[in-house]
Amino acid sequence: MLEFAILGLLQQSPMHGYELRKQLAQVLGGLRSISYGSLYPALKRLHAAGYVTTDEPAPGALLPADAPPLTGRRGKVVYRITAEGKEHFHELAGRSGPEAYDDGGLFGVRLAFFRHTAADVRLRILEGRRRTVERQREGLRASLARTRERFDRYTLELQRHGLDSVDREVRWLAELIDRELVDTERTPTDHPDPDRPRDDGAGPAGTGPGEGTGRPRPT
Amino acid sequence: MLEFAILGLLQQSPMHGYELRKQLAQVLGGLRSISYGSLYPALKRLHAAGYVTTDEPAPGALLPADAPPLTGRRGKVVYRITAEGKEHFHELAGRSGPEAYDDGGLFGVRLAFFRHTAADVRLRILEGRRRTVERQREGLRASLARTRERFDRYTLELQRHGLDSVDREVRWLAELIDRELVDTERTPTDHPDPDRPRDDGAGPAGTGPGEGTGRPRPT
DNA sequence: GTTAGCATGTAAGGAGTTACATGATTTT
DNA sequence: AAAATCATGTAACTCCTTACATGCTAAC
Fold it and tell me: Edge-to-edge, what's the strand order for the sheet holding A15-16?
């Protein structure tokens, strides 16, 4: 998830780690930030995988042997996404299985980079998220209907607020889905996203052949 | 957090692991459940620490040597909280620092067991949570005010929905705090002063008034 | 000239997950 | 008797956090 978000941000412009973290916090809505202890290792992995390159200030010839780097080199390191990185990002962005919407946090990140996601994938993720949240809503409703006497007022309040939040999310998702459908009608599907050179329908690879995608597509 | 929730549930009645997991899922509002892979090790730790005892079905004399336990003993294992467990739980329930409210998930669990939490601690946690969420709200507001042009419509929607949620949470918390204050006025605890080391219901083992109903709740 | 904010990194560890392995009981 | 559901547990692993360690640069 972190790596996806990093690649997504670097797609917009090269950045150094510190800046990346601030942007990340903003994109995730201040809801959750990440620590440097996970950011820098992630960048390191992305670099090792060839998904990003680093523009380092001085190539290392400057430092004499009598000043050995204690923890590593210092100075700004600007990270830049590579062609492989973009490809990898779009592969990840093309996935529309449950991982993309079952977890609220991950769904948020996916949504934040919907700009780089194909229209059909966007719709599948939004609908998947809606199903997930609707199921949660039904669970909460059932629980509230059943258990008035079993729980105390705090638990009840927690569930009431939970139900309220989940209900609002369902309505919000319904709006987003509606807008997607309207936009799809207006843009006759062959270029739903000007940002992305479409090679095909988001790639079949995705997540699982067993994933039930046999659902009626509303027009 | 898991261990706190387990002790909280076992306070209400003894249970076996499977049942515990279902209850846990319900208390946490179906928002998130836990897997057996974390539940059973947690129970094991609590047992090792002496916070729970196990009522095992057959003490082992029944099984002949020619049927060796392959992965361990089978059959329902009922867990029951001990006096030390109750003490430990109340120690945890008495904490009102940032850990109790900075993370939404943890806050939810704490709230779910407010019944076993002293009134002054409840208030501090609710107020702490409100401050945290208000700060989040301000962050989001600022971000939305600043960045209309920098972000695309999806990011904007995400932030808008986030702001909405956070705003509702602040209002919800304000209501809960109000109710706490009203209840505190109506139940004239002889020392409303928060500096006093309150041990209401949190007393060591035997002396406690029992976990049934901490104190009479006038409605 | 020192404080505050910018900037990069490592090591240890917490808190959970999935995948696996097994068996008991109830329903069909 | 097969299938579903109840029930318990381990091992490997993921993903992230905290605490630590270091140093640069601008403002006061």
Answer: A15-16, A78-81, A52-55
Mean pLDDT of all residues in chain A? 79
B56-71 pLDDT tens trace: 755 444 444 434 444 4
pTM: 0.80
Question: Which of A19, A24, A27, A31 is best to mutate for the B interface (most B CBs within 10 A)?
Answer: A31
Nearest C-alpha in A relative to B104: A31
Q: How high is the pLDDT of residue B30?
A: 63
How many Å apart are CA B207 and CA B215, to the nearest integer?
14
| Tens digits of residue pLDDT in A11-54 | 999 999 999 998 888 877 666 788 999 999 999 999 999 999 99
Nearest-CA residue relative to C1' of C21: B71
* pLDDT on residue B147: 67
Q: Using the structure, give the distance in angstroms from the CA atom of B179 to the C1' atom of C1, rounded to a whole number.
A: 54
Instruction: Find the length of chain B.
Output: 219
CATH code matching the domain that covers A2-57+72-93, chosen among 3.20.20.70, 3.40.30.10, 1.10.10.10, 3.30.1700.10: 1.10.10.10
Q: Which amino acid is at B5?
A: A
The separation, in Å, between residue B215 CA and nucleotide D20 C1' comes to 46
**CB B29 to CB A143 under 8 A?**
yes
